[in-house]
Design a protein that fits this description.
Blueprint: H1 2-15, H2 24-43, H3 52-65, E1 68-73, E2 77-84, E3 89-95, E4 114-116, E5 122-124, H4 131-147, E6 154-161, H5 169-175, E7 187-198, E8 202-204, E9 207-210, E10 212-214, E11 217-221, E12 225-226, H6 236-254, E13 262-270, E14 276-277, E15 280-289, H7 292-312, E16 320-321, E17 330-332, H8 334-348, E18 353-355, H9 366-370, E19 375-383, H10 385-394, H11 410-430
Parallel strand pairs: 3-6, 3-7, 7-19, 8-18
Antiparallel strand pairs: 1-2, 2-6, 4-5, 8-19, 9-17, 10-15, 11-15, 11-16, 12-14, 13-15
Helix pairs in contact: 2-4, 2-11, 3-4, 4-11, 6-7, 8-11
Bound molecules: zinc ion (ZN) (2 copies).
C-alpha cells in the first residue's frame, strides 16, 4: 500500500497535479454508503420548514463524524462546525426541502409520500429538485474533510438550509443568527444539480446568475349568475382569459429583449361548475427579472392591463393583486468564481469544468451574498450523456428540476459533486485569496 501511495505521489508530481487533494478511488469507496443515504432521503422527502426527519438524519451523520452540530436554526435548519486550526471560515450549503410533486420517475426508491403542507392542504411530496443529491454530497464531503484534516486549516461550516423552494429558509437562518451565533464565513459556496450539462460536469458563471422571482395573485371581479343568462352577469372567466392573452404583450411589446423577463401565469381558479358564472377568478402570476427596476415596471404594466381589461368588461370593481415578498438575484462573486473555477479546472480538467449561461430560475442562496459574504453557487450536470444526446436528436427536452421525472444520474453526479466541493474547499482553506 505504501509503495502504491508513493508511486501515485510521484505520478501526481510529474503530471503537475496538486499533491494534496482527494483521489477518485477514495470517493468510490464512499459510494455504497452514500447511495443508501441518498435513496433513504429520496424515499422520505419533506416539504419546506417540515424537514425534521431529514435534518435529524444529517445531524446524526455529522455528529458521528465529529462535527459540532446545532439543530433548529431558522426553524428546521442545521449547522455543523469543524474547527481545524487557524484559517478562514468556509460555509458549504445544502438545501433540505422537497417539492409538492407526485413522483413519476419509476425508480425503485421513488417517493409515495403524501402529506399536509403548512397551509393544511394534502399534497404529494418528491425530491424533484435534487436537494437529496446535494445533501448526500455534503455528507460525503464532510467525511472527506474529517479524514484529511491534516491537509487543511480553518473552520468548515456545513449548513443544511430549510425551505429553499419557498425562498424563505436562507432568510430564516440568517435572522436566527447564522452569521452571528456561528463564525461569520469568509466564503459561502453551494452546488446545484442541472439538466443542461452531462452528469458530473461542473458549471460556473461569474456575476448575476439566477433571477429575481415574485409570485403575485391577481383577482378579477365580475357578477355571477346562471350560465344560461350571461347577459345578466359580468363574466370574470372571459375577463381573465382576455387578461392572460393581453399580459403576454408586456414581454413581447413593452420590454427590451436585452433585459430578460419571464411572465408566467401558472394557475387560474374560478367557478365551481359549468352552468354557473362565478363572481371572481384569480390568476397566479410568476414574474422573473434581473433587476428591481424591471420588476417594478412589469408589475405596473400588469396592474395597468388588468385594470383596463376589467374596465372593458364593465367589472363592478377594480382587480386586486397581492404583493408577496420578492426574491433577489444570485450574484456569484467574480473573484471567488474565478479562483474556484481555476482550482476545479486544474484538478478536474477544462472539459469537466465549464462556463455556463445565467438562468431565469431563482434561488434564495442570493441572501448569503446580500449579507455581505462573497458567495458562489456552482451547478453540476446530472443527466447521462446518452440522454442528452437523444434529447438533442429528437428535440424533446430532458426532464429538468421540478419535473415529476427529474432523477439525477446519481453515481457520476454525486462523485463529481464531492470532488468539486472538496477541491473548492481545499483551495479556499489553503491558498490566500
Ligand atoms: Zn427547486
Ligand atoms: Zn433546488
Amino acid at each position: 500500500m505504501q509503495r502504491v501511495g508513493k508511486f501515485a505521489f510521484v505520478i501526481a508530481l510529474l503530471a503537475g497535479a496538486p499533491v494534496s487533494g482527494q483521489t477518485s478511488a477514495e470517493i468510490d469507496a464512499y459510494f455504497p454508503d452514500l447511495q443508501a443515504l441518498y435513496q433513504d432521503i429520496h424515499r422520505n422527502p419533506e416539504l419546506a420548514f417540515q424537514e425534521v426527519q431529514t435534518a435529524a438524519k444529517l445531524a446524526a451523520r455529522l455528529k458521528t463524524l465529529g462535527y459540532d452540530v446545532t439543530t433548529a436554526v431558522g426553524r428546521t435548519g442545521i449547522v455543523g462546525i469543524l474547527k481545524n486550526g487557524a484559517g478562514p471560515t468556509v460555509m458549504l450549503r445544502t438545501e433540505l426541502d422537497a417539492l409538492p410533486v407526485a413522483e413519476k420517475t419509476g425508480a425503485p426508491f421513488a417517493s409515495t409520500v403524501v402529506t399536509k403542507n403548512l397551509a393544511g392542504a394534502t399534497v404529494p411530496v418528491m425530491h424533484a429538485c435534487g436537494h437529496d443529491l446535494h445533501m448526500t454530497a455534503v455528507i460525503g464531503t464532510a467525511r472527506w474533510m474529517v479524514e484529511h484534516r491534516q491537509q487543511w486549516h480553518g473552520t468548515l461550516m456545513l449548513v443544511g438550509q430549510p425551505a429553499e423552494e419557498s425562498t424563505s429558509g436562507a432568510e430564516a437562518m440568517l435572522k436566527d443568527g447564522l452569521f452571528t451565533r456561528f463564525p461569520r464565513p469568509d466564503y459561502v459556496i453551494g452546488l446545484h444539480d442541472d439538466d443542461s450539462m452531462p452528469a458530473g460536469t461542473i458549471g460556473y458563471h461569474a456575476g448575476p446568475f439566477r433571477a429575481i422571482s415574485i409570485s403575485p395573485t391577481l383577482t378579477m371581479y365580475g357578477r355571477g349568475g346562471h350560465g344560461a343568462m350571461p347577459f345578466n352577469t359580468i363574466d370574470p372567466v372571459v375577463m381573465a382569459a382576455r387578461t392572460v392573452m393581453a399580459l403576454q404583450t408586456i414581454v413581447s411589446r413593452e420590454n427590451d429583449p436585452m433585459d430578460p423577463v419571464v411572465l408566467t401565469i401558472g394557475s387560474i381558479h374560478g367557478g365551481t361548475q359549468a352552468n354557473v358564472i362565478p363572481d371572481e377568478v384569480s390568476l397566479g402570476l410568476n414574474i422573473r427579472t434581473y433587476s428591481d427596476e424591471t420588476q417594478k415596471r412589469i408589475l405596473a404594466a400588469v396592474t395597468r392591463i388588468a385594470r383596463a381589461e376589467a374596465a372593458a368588461a364593465r367589472a363592478p370593481r377594480e382587480p386586486t393583486m397581492t404583493m408577496p415578498e420578492s426574491g433577489h438575484v444570485v450574484v456569484n462573486d467574480p473573484a471567488l468564481t474565478k479562483r474556484v473555477a481555476a482550482a476545479l479546472q486544474k484538478a478536474m480538467g477544462q472539459q469537466q469544468v465549464i462556463e455556463m449561461p445565467a438562468k431565469m430560475t431563482s434561488e434564495d442562496f442570493a441572501e448569503y451574498g446580500r449579507a455581505g459574504v462573497p458567495a458562489l453557487l456552482l451547478h453540476i450536470g446530472a443527466v447521462s450523456p446518452a440522454k442528452l444526446a437523444e434529447s438533442k436528436r429528437t428535440g424533446i427536452p430532458v426532464p429538468a428540476p421540478h419535473s415529476p421525472e427529474w432523477l439525477p444520474d446519481l453515481e457520476p453526479t454525486l462523485k463529481a459533486a464531492i470532488r468539486g466541493e472538496t477541491i473548492a474547499l481545499l483551495d479556499l482553506f489553503n491558498n490566500a485569496g
